[in-house]
């Protein structure tokens, strides 16, 4: 990555209504996670009309910001900015347990990782996926890690990346029938294959960052999704079925959950009969100062925890 490991993320979402609306209640998952692979050095959210978002951690440890706009309005713009430090990956670990050993751990893994092994709305464990499971076993090296890598690679090879082929509410069956989709579809497909084989796996939302100072990743190409799989004796490992390989320093994760339904960037409800249109703009670039030097430090302030009495019910933007 040409020595660059600090990146600035800008995410703007605009809702435009064809009439007057009011009492808009919204929930955001836009703040990058802070863990051993990355550090969120700074983060802020602004809205127009003005609001004061309150923050808390959800069930999966993702940052959630909630805000409401009570007066009448015809537009709502939400902007987030963050600076993230990406840490160098640790040295590659061995392959871990074999698939035969994995068979003996099914019950204990299901007990400990129930959320990451169960079927969900976006990831039903369809019988038709058994062929992809079998092919991944043949292509892999006999280890659980090799199986997961083979599954990601086969999805990359057998399915066509085609923006517009599906939409945010498309089913796994739609992807299987058209043999095409986007990163969200391929991630759900890989999740289902891994879970069918008894490997805990979770959906990850985030961004792809540029590899060098002269490269920018703009618009829909920046927002991305991939998978993390739990391999006994190794831990959680990131796999990107869209590119068919392991996750590297290009991937900045924002949130993870059982599927997309747990981690949409923006959702909410409003009062009124007006229809709406949505536009999203994302910019990811190296964090550089006015002289072109890489920024070394930003505030590490985290948003304050949200009081329990202010937590509102999760709702879907319509």
Characterise the protein shown here.
By secondary structure, the protein is of the alpha+beta class. It folds into two domains: 127 residues, Immunoglobulin-like; 164 residues, Roll (C8orf32 fold), CATH 3.10.620. It contains seven helices and 15 strands. Strands 1, 2, 3, 4, 5, 9, 14 and 15 form an eight-stranded antiparallel beta sheet that branches. A five-stranded antiparallel beta sheet has the order 12-11-10-8-13, covered by helices on one side. Helix 4 crosses helix 5 and helix 5 packs antiparallel against helix 7. It is globular. It starts with 5 loop residues before the first strand and ends in a 32-residue tail after the last strand. The C terminus is likely disordered.
Number of helices: 7
Name of the CATH first level of the largest domain: Alpha Beta
Instruction: Kindly give the count of domains.
Output: 2
- Biggest sheet, in brief? 8 strands, antiparallel
Amount of helix: 10-25%
Report the count of strand segments: 15
Summarize the helix and strand pattern as letters: EEEEEHHHHHEHEHEEEEEEEE
Query: Strand share of the residues?
Result: 35-45%
Q: Give the helix/strand class.
A: alpha+beta
CATH topology of the largest domain, by name, is C8orf32 fold
Low-confidence residue ranges: 296-318
How large is the radius of gyration?
A: 20 Å
* N/C terminus separation: 40 Å
Coarse shape: globular
Give me the CATH architecture of the largest domain, please: Roll
**pLDDT averaged residue by residue:** 87
Core attributes:
36% strand; 8-stranded antiparallel β-sheet; C8orf32 fold; alpha+beta; globular; 7 helices; disordered C terminus; 318 residues; Immunoglobulin-like
């Amino acid at each position: 990555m040409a020595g660059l490991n600090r990146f600035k993320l800008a995410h703007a979402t605009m809702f435009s209504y064809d009439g007057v609306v009011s009492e808009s209640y919204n929930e955001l998952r836009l703040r990058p996670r802070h863990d051993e692979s990355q550090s969120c050095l700074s983060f802020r959210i602004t809205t127009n009309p003005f609001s004061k978002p309150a923050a808390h951690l959800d069930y999966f440890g993702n940052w959630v910001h909630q805000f409401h706009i009570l007066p009448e309005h015809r537009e709502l713009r939400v902007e987030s900015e963050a600076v993230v430090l990406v840490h160098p990956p640790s040295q590659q670990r061995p392959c871990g347990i074999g698939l035969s050993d994995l068979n003996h751990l099914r019950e204990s893994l299901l007990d400990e990782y129930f959320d990451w092994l169960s079927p969900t709305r976006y990831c039903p464990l369809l019988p038709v996926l058994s062929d992809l499971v079998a092919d991944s076993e043949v292509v892999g090296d006999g280890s659980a890690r090799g199986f997961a890598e083979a599954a990601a690679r086969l999805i990359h090879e057998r399915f066509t990346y085609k923006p517009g082929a599906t939409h945010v509410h498309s089913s796994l069956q739609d992807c299987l029938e058209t043999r095409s989709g986007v990163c969200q579809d391929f991630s759900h497909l890989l999740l289902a294959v891994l879970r069918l084989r008894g490997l805990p796996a979770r959906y990850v939302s985030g961004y792809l960052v540029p590899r060098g100072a002269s490269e920018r990743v703009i618009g829909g190409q920046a927002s991305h999704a991939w998978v993390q799989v739990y391999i006994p004796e190794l831990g959680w490992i990131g796999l990107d079925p869209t590119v068919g390989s392991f996750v590297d320093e290009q991937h900045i994760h924002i949130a993870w959950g059982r599927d997309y339904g747990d981690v949409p960037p923006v959702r909410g409800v409003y009062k009124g009969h007006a229809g709406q249109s949505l536009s999203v703009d994302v910019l990811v670039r190296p964090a550089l100062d006015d002289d072109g030097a890489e920024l070394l430090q930003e505030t590490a302030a985290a948003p304050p925890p949200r009081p329990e009495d202010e937590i509102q019910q999760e709702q879907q933007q319509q």
